[in-house]
Structure formats: C-alpha cells, structure tokens
Automatic annotation (TrEMBL):
The chain crosses the membrane at residues 134-156, 162-181, 300-321, 333-351. Gene3D superfamilies: Cytochrome b5-like heme/steroid binding domain. It comes from Achlya hypogyna. This is Delta(5) fatty acid desaturase. GO terms for cellular component: membrane. InterPro entries: Cyt_B5-like_heme/steroid-bd (IPR001199), Cyt_B5-like_heme/steroid_sf (IPR036400), FA_desaturase_dom (IPR005804), Fatty_acid_desaturase (IPR012171). It comes from the Eukaryota. GO terms for molecular function: metal ion binding; oxidoreductase activity, acting on paired donors, with oxidation of a pair of donors resulting in the reduction of molecular oxygen to two molecules of water. One of its GO terms (biological process) is unsaturated fatty acid biosynthetic process. The keyword Phosphoprotein does not apply.
Length: 470
C-alpha cells in the first residue's frame, strides 16, 4: 500500500491545533474535520469552517457533510453553475489557507471553457423559463416501471411455469436497474427536485429499500470520487485501485498479466455480479473500513447505521425470506430466478456505465504514471474522459437514464437528466469553439464495441490502448 494511501486512512482523528493559533492548514489537518460537529472544506486554496452552514444549506446538509474534510473546488463549481450567490456566502466562513501537497492530483484552473459553458446553459434556462432540477420530471415513467416490477416479482414467485418465472426474473432485473438510473441517480446529484427532503426519500427508496444497496456508498463512490476524478487512475473509485492484482486492466500503469489477453471475453459476463459485489462492499468498505476505493469515507452517524441495517433487512425479507420461508419456493427454482434477476441488473448497469468511460474514445489522466498535477482543467478533462452516443434517440435516452449524454451529465451533475438533450448542442458548440473534441458515437452498439476494443487493446502486452484525446 502506498504511503499516501496509508496516510489517508489515518486522518480520521480530529486535529488538536486550535483554529485561532493556525491560519494555514494541510490536507491532513482539514481531513480531521469531517463530521457534523466540525466540518471544514477546501475551495480554491482557502479553508472554510462550514459546520454552522451545513444545516442552512439549501441543497441539504448531507451534501455539505459528504464533502467535509476534503478539497471541493470542482464539486462546488459544478453544483453551483448558474449563480455566484454560494460564493458570496462561503466567504463568511473562511478560516485560513491551504498549504502543502494535495491528497489527490489537482486540475488546472478554468481559463474560460467551463465559464462559457455555464453562461450559455444558464441563459438557456433563463430564456425558456425552466428550472434546472425539472421538479419530479419522469415520475410517471418510474411509476410504470415499479408497477411492472411488481408484476414481474409476482410472476417470479407464483407462476407454475419455470420459463415464465425466468422471463419474469429477467424483466424484474431490468426494472430494478431503471429507477437507479433515473430517480436514484438524479437524487444523488440533488437534481431530481430542488427540495433536499425528496432527494433523500426518493433516492434511498430506490437504492436502499427497493434494490438493497446503499446510497451512502454510492454518494462516496460516485459523487465524491468518480465525478471529480473521472478516469484518473489512483483517484477514481471506478477504476482499478490496485495496480498489481485487479481482474481488469484499464490503464497502462497496471502491471501486465497474461490473463488480461482474454479480459474482453471474461469481463462482460462478470459484470453481472456488479450488484451483488456492491452490496457486500457496503459492509466491508463503506461501513467497515470507511473507504471506497481510494476515497476516505467520513464517519457515520448512528442514524445512518440504523437506516442501513433496516433497509438491508427489508430487502432480505422481501427478496429472500418471503420466497423461501413463506411461499416455500423450491430452492433450485428460487436460486435460478434470484440470480438471473440480479445478473440482469448487474449487466444492465455495468454496460451503461462502462461504455461511457472505458472506451477507445476516452482519455485516462495519470493512466501511464502517477502525477500530482493534471494537464487539463477539470471541465476539459470531463469532456475528454467521457463519451456520448445515440443523441436524438428518446428510447436510448430513457433506457440509459440519459447517460448517453455523459459529457453533459459530468459538466452539469446538478441539472436534471431530462434537460440533457436540449443542453448537449450548447456544450457541443462551446467545445467546437475551444477546440475540444466532444466524442459522440452513433448508437449503443458502437459504444459497446469501443468498450470491448479498449479491453482487448489493454490486454496486449506492450501495446497501449488507442486513445483519442482530441
């Protein structure tokens, strides 16, 4: 384990240095203030004590506490893209400056690209009198999905025909994934509505109670890690963390192993275990070791533990106990329909996520060597490390939860997915003016082939992946 990684895991204790006696802080000192009792953040080289502000935050205290003890410049900018109000409020809580090396690699400051994107997209909302969060948009779609899921669940457990049970299980697997791509995903980015209460309730209903996962794990992996350090090896939890031992080889920094020559064949089937893997990691990492890949997970309140145990118990009750103990399904039949449903969910989610970032059309900052400073600005890096596909297809957009507009999603995570098709041409035009390649593939099939090609390329010893950095 790298010394820096070990150090990150040792900073859970709060620093004893009084604020009044010290005006410059290291990331380790800031990292010690990562609870509701003492929450500090670093933004643009300044350290802020936002403990008091957390309960006043219009976006909800959870988003503040999630980033407590961290460098949060790019998160702050991407979640406040159309107003300077948050910046003016933040000044009231400044307590010092940040000094020394950073915990993770840093991006160059914005030189105008992201500012122009924010300006034009903001003008779009203003001109059309639209709200970025859309307000419960798509709720009727998810109502239908949950209804179909209920019918599928009934068919899995009560049909006397095994073929019907298998078909129902596959259908349930799809219906288990769709709410995660829609209402849960938007809720995790505070883009479902502009009311934090509904982000909490809707997101956790879909993720924790319905799917048996953990929104806390997802927030740390996806919001804190992946969305800021997209495709940055050693920082993005979605990439391999162990450079010598992972089953996948995604970047050149990873030590080559003979088995990687076949990863384009064995990885796609293995993607089916994604959902089961995440549910285990909820216990072993997020709530156990307080880590999520390279990301430090802040301490959990007692209420968070209780909520996790209750939701996991409910999921186990309706997915495991009821079919076996109450309905007395034959064990072989139960295992067949249970694992088919879970594998379909895993495949559905993994294929959607993988084609957007693990592709010959994406860049990989720090993919060949560890760096403290990255070559691009954060927003430019988001464009280069993401790939879109099937623009204009309403069906693909629905089935993918609008993740086929991945570039827009990464630049504007706090904007509802239902705005992405209208925003994409605006971002594309700004990219053209700044000479930044916006990768758009014609359909999902092409995107999937590009994903497999990257896996195959990385499985060839001494042959780097074909990367189009534009």
């Amino acid at each position: 384990m790298a010394p820096q990684t070990e150090l990150r895991q040792r900073v859970v204790a709060k620093t004893d240095v009084p604020v009044t006696a010290q005006k410059t802080f290291t990331w380790q000192e800031v990292a010690g203030h990562n609870t509701a009792a003492s929450a500090w953040i670093i933004i643009r080289g300044k350290v802020y004590d936002v403990t008091e502000w957390a309960n006043k935050h219009p976006g909800g205290r959870e988003m503040v506490l999630l980033h407590a003890g961290r460098e949060a410049t790019d998160t702050f900018d991407s979640y406040h893209p159309f107003s300077d109000k948050a910046e003016s409020i933040l000044k009231k809580y400044e307590i010092g400056t940040f000094t020394g090396p950073t915990e993770f690699p840093t991006f160059k400051p914005d030189t105008g690209f992201y500012k122009e994107c924010r300006k034009r997209v903001g003008e779009y909302f203003k001109k059309n009198k639209l709200h970025p969060q859309a307000g419960f948009a798509g709720l009727w779609r998810m109502t239908i999905v949950f209804a179909v899921a209920a019918v599928a669940l009934y068919g899995m457990h009560f049909s006397s025909c095994f073929s019907v049970q298998l078909a129902a299980a596959a259908l349930f697997g799809v219906c288990q994934a769709l709410p995660l791509l829609h209402v849960m995903h938007d809720s995790s980015h505070a883009s479902y509505t502009n009311v934090p209460f509904f982000h909490y309730v809707v997101g956790r209903f879909a993720m924790d109670w319905f799917a048996g996962g953990s929104m806390v794990s997802w927030l740390n992996q996806h919001v804190v890690g992946h969305h800021i350090y997209t495709n940055v090896a050693g920082s993005d939890p979605d990439l391999p963390v162990n450079m010598d031992g992972d089953v996948r080889r995604i970047v050149d920094r990873q030590v080559f192993k003979g088995m990687y020559a076949f990863q384009h064949l064995y990885l796609p089937p293995l993607y089916g275990v994604l959902g089961l893997k995440f549910r285990i990691q909820d216990f072993t990492e997020t709530f156990g070791s307080h880590t999520n890949g390279p990301v430090r997970v802040n301490p959990h309140a007692l209420s968070t533990w209780v909520a996790m145990i209750c939701s996991k118990s409910f999921w186990a009750f309706y997915r495991i106990y009821l079919p076996l103990a109450v309905l007395q399904m034959p064990l072989k039949t139960y295992l067949a329909v249970f694992f088919l449903a879970e594998f379909v969910t895993g495949w559905y989610l993994a294929f959607n996520f993988q084609v957007s970032h693990v592709s010959t059309e994406c860049g990989y900052p720090c993919g060949d060597e560890a760096k403290l400073a990255l070559e691009d600005e954060w927003a430019v890096s988001q464009v280069k490390t993401s790939v879109d596909y099937a623009h204009g297809s309403w069906l693909t957009t629905f089935l993918a939860g609008a993740l086929n507009y991945q570039v827009v999603h990464h630049l504007f995570p706090s904007v509802s997915q239902y705005h992405y098709p209208a925003i994409a041409p605006i971002v594309k035009e700004v990219c053209k003016e700044y000479g930044i390649k916006y990768a758009i593939l014609p359909d999902f099939s092409t995107a999937f082939v590009a994903h497999l090609k990257h896996l195959r390329n990385m499985g060839k010893q001494g042959i780097p992946a074909t990367i189009h950095m534009g």
